[in-house]
Amino acid sequence: MRREPEGRWILFDAVGTLMVPDPPVAVAYRAAARRFGSRLDEAAIGARFRAAFQAHAYTGGATNEQAERARWRAVVGQVIDDVRGVKAEALFESLWGHFARPEHWRLFDDVPAALERLTRRGWRLAIASNFDARLRTVVGGHPPLAACEPLFISSEIGFAKPDRRFFAAIEA
């Protein structure tokens, strides 16, 4: 078996590459929204989420923890617009906390074996993701992801992909 050179790295994005929300976003948003009085159905929430996520998509540039919370607050508000005021803030906090918990994220079935195989072949693995500090808790709750160290998180680096400064910070 051919062994890859030492010191070579593979960096993975987190969401959509290694893991996905479980339950899916529309299901989680619907459950939370219902607790705060929303009448929106799952299909409407799914469509609204896709539109809001696109509207608030990363284009690169500066970011930090505060900016990430504000971005997600805007997404939640755009998706679930029939919950307002204090309830809207409580809804946001509920969803923010939900997606901070490892049990609400599922690794793709092939991820553990793939990471183990790459590690065995001498590759060093890391995660480079547009995310916030919650990713550390999520990754920490999935033992197969322990092989991916360090974590390069946009909110901690200060720039989001595809900004070249994100990648320059990783190379430094």
- Strands, total number: 7
User: Regarding CATH, which class of the largest domain?
Assistant: Mainly Alpha
Average predicted confidence as pLDDT: 95
Principal-axis shape: globular
For the largest sheet, list the strands in their spatial order: 1-5-6
Give the tally of structural domains.
Answer: 2
CATH superfamily of the largest domain: Haloacid dehalogenase-like hydrolase
Largest sheet: 3 strands, parallel
Count up the helices. Answer: 8
Percent of residues in helices comes to 40-55%
The CATH topology of the largest domain turns out to be DNA polymerase, domain 1
Describe the protein:
It contains eight helices and seven strands; from the N terminus they run ββααβααβαβαβαβα. It is globular. It has two domains: 9-19 and 105-171, HAD superfamily/HAD-like (Rossmann fold); 22-103, DNA polymerase, domain 1 (Orthogonal Bundle). The strands form three sheets. Strands 1-5-6 form a three-stranded parallel β-sheet. Strands 2-4 form a two-stranded antiparallel sheet. A two-stranded antiparallel ribbon has the order 3-7. The protein has helices at 25-35, 42-55, 65-79, 85-98, 111-120, 134-140, 154-157, 164-171, and strands at 9-12, 19-21, 61-62, 105-107, 124-129, 148-153, 159-160. Mean pLDDT is 95; it is low at 1-5. It starts with 8 loop residues before the first strand and ends with a helix. The longest helix is centred in the middle third of the chain and has 15 residues, at 65-79. The protein has 172 residues and is an alpha/beta fold.
